[in-house]
Amino acid sequence: MVIRRSKKAVAETTPSTAKAKPPKKALTADIEPDKKPLTDKQNAARKNGMAERAAEQLKAYFPEVPTEHLWIRQKNKGFGTIPRTLPIVMEVIDNLSKGQPAGHAYFALWCRAPDGPLVVVQNPLAFAAEAGFSGERAVDTWRRRMKRLKELGFIKTKKGVTGEFHYILLMNPNIVIELMKQ
């Protein structure tokens, strides 16, 4: 005669030698206002899990591509961490600055931010070119876009040797847009 017990009954009567795992939390808890934010430890574990999964998928789907042909942020210089919402933010900026779209100028600033919110402009012509402006008026056009970004609250600035936009502080664009809605 075979006696069958449910998994629940087995779990209740069998002593566990392993630590009980806490229930999984929603991945969006760190961005949803009604849920408790993730701790630094939880965010690190989540990030490591995502990186491991991405590495496995890279090996599985693109095994023929040599790693030296890929942009690996930890190995290559010239990187930046940008908000995932940046394309939407760029659209909002362009819609709020009709006739003088500043979304690309904002994107170029984020590309220059080395994992921090402060950008120092040593060469305004280089920033103008990266934002897509060329010709004799490139720097003037770029400065007008910077003024618009400042008016909208996406950046704060301090004067320096290259002018009004030498030091640029990038504000959290999600918060800026949320404040605009209020």
Strand count, sense and closure of the main sheet? 3 strands, antiparallel
Overall structural class, as computed from helix and strand content, comes to mainly alpha
Helix content: 40-55%
**Number of extended strands:** 3
Fraction in beta strands: 5-15%
Head-to-tail CA distance between termini: 70 Å
Mean pLDDT: 81
Kindly report the spatial arrangement of strands forming the biggest sheet.
1-3-2
3D shape: globular
Radius of gyration: 24 Å
Question: Order of helices and strands, N to C?
Answer: HHHHEHHEEH
Quickly count the helices: 7
Low-confidence stretches: 5-31
Give a quick set of tags describing it.
182 residues; mainly alpha; three-stranded antiparallel sheet; 7 helices; 9% strand
Give the topology:
Layout: H1 7-13, H2 40-61, H3 86-96, H4 103-111, E1 118-120, H5 124-130, H6 138-152, E2 155-160, E3 163-170, H7 173-181
Antiparallel strand pairs: 1-3, 2-3
Walk me through this protein's architecture:
The chain has seven helices and three strands. By secondary structure, it is mainly alpha-helical. A three-stranded antiparallel beta sheet has the order 1-3-2, covered by helices on one side. A hairpin with a 2-residue loop joins strand 2 and strand 3 (163-170). Mean pLDDT is 81; it is low at 5-31. The chain has helices at 7-13, 40-61, 86-96, 103-111, 124-130, 138-152, 173-181; strands spanning 118-120, 155-160, 163-170. Helix 3 packs antiparallel against helix 4 and helix 5 (124-130) crosses helix 6 (138-152).
